[in-house]
User: Fold this.
Amino acid sequence: MIRFIFSDLRRLWAGSLVVVLLVALATALGVSVVLQERALRLGSARAADKFDLVIGAGGSETQLVLSSVFLQPSPLPLMPGEVLGKLAADPRVDWAAPIGFGDSFSGYPIVGTTTMLAQNLSGGLAEGKIFAREGEAMIGSAVRLALGGEIKPMHGSLDEGGETHTELVYHIAGRLRPTGTAWDRAILVPIQAVWHIHGMEAEEHAENGAEAGHDHEHEEASADHGHRHHGKADPDAALDESWTAEAPGLPAILVKPKTIADAYKLRQDYRSGNTVAVFPGEVLTNLYATLGDAKQILVAVASGAQALVAASLVLVTVIHIGQRRRQIGALRAFGAPRGAIFGIVWLEFFFLVAIGIALGFALGYAAALILSGMLSQTSGVAMPVGFAREDAWLAAVLLALATILAALPAVLAYRQSPAQALRA
Assistant:
């Protein structure tokens, strides 16, 4: 029987190929949606795990996390620099690292921060050393620049018509180890250098920190109109990371609490009207809820496509059985029992659908890998693509449907009369 089935499939190879491709494409659509959504969840969750607590000015918690953790370009309101001084002196804080952004170079975001964050972000250096002067910089593992190279910061980005700063040229001192986060594509520079080249000296903010922070926010928002404040920077100046209440305004501070209890207390203390403190994981949970709704829509679309493919296959097989009436009648005339006819037709169709499902899983996995690679390249966030235990249930359901679907043409062949088939 098996030899007869393979011989029959070779003879009808064109129709068999169409059935396999239809099933494979429909299956690949659903599989790629599931795998890509899971990769996005895992990648973003692992990226957020690097940061315990983020504190920023009052506003959107989601935007604060997207800007500070995933380095998505967006102007954030500035909080008074005194918040940094309070956190630095808080016994519940292991370390607090201010970050400032708004500049870029060759498509990579430039992030102003501290040596403490540079030491703890990736667990060490891949090469070189940590910056120790205003004119030094560090690069993430995915930044395609060489040690010792020059970095000329641009306010904003080239696409936005940004203006290159002439106050300071950074030289690359070291490269971080891979983190699997957006920071792998970042250029890290001393925060005090960012303050200096933007004219945000501490003395100005000592007079009115909130007002100066608003001015700098307006500077970022209106970059394309040329309203920028430039200052002076000394590339050989030593770094001073002793934070006081006179520090300039900041868009965000990354905080490492000493204990879990301290983390919750700090979050509560800084969730006032002027500041907001968030756990990145909690914010991502809210985003996942929205993402889950989008996933349901995509899964529904994929299910609809699979249903259409199933209906098309039913129509094709009914026509196919009609065209094979003489062959089926001949088999019956030569003594083939009805059960054998049923088994031959069922096995042929089930075999084709099963191959299509297997091919669809492979195509869906490949599509998810390509899409995740593209997203990782642009965002810097590593997105692991892989099958999970629940995917076996999906395969089992599809095979069960294939079993039922294959039974339809088999029943039609089973019920055919050999005499009528030979007269057709």
Confidence is low (pLDDT under 50) at residues 202-229. The first helix runs from residue 2 to 11.
